[in-house]
Amino acid sequence: MSVRKVFADALERAANGRELSREDLQVLLGADEQESTSLFELADEVRSRFVGEEVHLRGLIEFSNYCTGNCLYCGLRKNNRSLVRYRMSPEEIMESARRAADLGCRTIVLQSGEDRYYTAEDLAELISRMKGELDVAITISIGDRTRTEYELLKEAGADRYLLKFETSDPRLFSALRPGTTLEERLKRIAWLKELGYQVGSGNIVGLPGQSLEILVGDILLLRRLGVEMAGIGPFIPADGTPLERFPPGDLEQVLMTLALVRLVLPRAHLPATTATATLDSQGRLRALKCGANVIMPNMTPQSYRENYRIYPGKLGIGEMPEESYAKAVKMVESAGRRVSRDYGHGYRVREALKTGSGIS
Ligand code: SF4
């Protein structure tokens, strides 16, 4: 059978809603330019059918760039001495959240490096204050903590937790994230689900040492975890890291991975990531057209932004939150879509709210 026929068969299985096998994913991920257009169109159709035309704008507040981790691919790693470190005060975080909510964000994403300066109690207080004062859902993205800490944050009102596994290959994981294991990461994701969070995860496309098989494994792992959000971003070599001389991930491969994740997780929320836009100015717009339905405008005060440097060349460094929000709205409109005004909860909560079965 010709490669084209194998591709067409795999695509047809996907179009008919049949579960894609490892082999199907491998064939689809190897699509050439013409084939990938069909894949993107199908992912866009599936996105429209399952999560509609609305795009959720989640206001991202990067409140600390301190990190005890030393991941080889990340500019925030503790051994990167060239980075100017900062922490926002609770008052500054609240002020940024207010600004984001005033602009229209119905979700606030609180993100930082792994920084234990903020205790779970500190963060719980902040979360409950935010939930009390603002009409927003809250996503936390602060990396590894204990189960008890996750529980405390959930009880304080956090709705969602984003914990990317980055790669599904245990050896590559431990090589790139020294001192940690994929098993521990997955254990934490399981805790978060047990605690009732809407859980997000994701990977990095184009990591040094990543093969096509590993990338297929990433997509399968996202399906197995049944995540409600999945962040698919490219590897971008960061100055001051051991991987600074490696080539960046390929935009087409990022978009194909995103499209395939839309096919295997039709109801999930998938962001058009800023890192995709860093690879190519049209990257986010293209992502919106091949499966994405979320944008995370940066609501971090402008004075701190340039130091949240996970990778270089990040877009929007010199912008005020208002500009970042306005650009996101414009992008949504130019994709022929509309900005959502609801919280943009995961599908389990959406279903429960519809049927009145009590998850809040
Ligand atoms: S990936 Fe996360 S844990 Fe690793 S160095 Fe970067 S911020 Fe720290």
Topology, number of strands: 8
What's the CATH architecture name? Answer: Alpha-Beta Barrel
Q: For the terminal residues, how far apart are their CA atoms?
A: 51 Å
Runs in which pLDDT lies below 50 for 5 or more consecutive residues are none
Question: And the CATH topology?
Answer: TIM Barrel
Could you tell me which ligands this complex binds, including any ions or cofactors? iron/sulfur cluster
- Major sheet: size, sense and barrel closure? 8 strands, parallel
Global geometry: globular
The top level CATH class name: Alpha Beta
Query: Which percent range fits the helix content?
Result: 40-55%
Structural class: alpha/beta
User: What's the alpha carbon Rg, rounded to whole Å?
Assistant: 19 Å
Q: Number of helical segments? A: 15
> What oligomeric assembly is this protein in?
single chain
* Number of structural units classed as domains: 1
CATH superfamily: Aldolase class I
Query: What's the order of the H and E elements?
Result: HHHEHEHEHEHHEHEHHHEHHEH
Mean pLDDT: 95
Overall description:
This protein has 360 residues and is of the alpha/beta class. The chain has a single domain (52-355), classed as TIM Barrel, CATH 3.20.20.70. The chain has 15 helices and 8 strands. Strands 1, 2, 3, 4, 5, 6, 7 and 8 form an 8-stranded parallel beta sheet that branches. Helix 3 (33-51) packs across helix 10 and helix 9 packs parallel to helix 10. 47% of the residues are buried. Residues 67, 69, 71, 74, 76-77, 113-114, 143 line the site of iron/sulfur cluster.
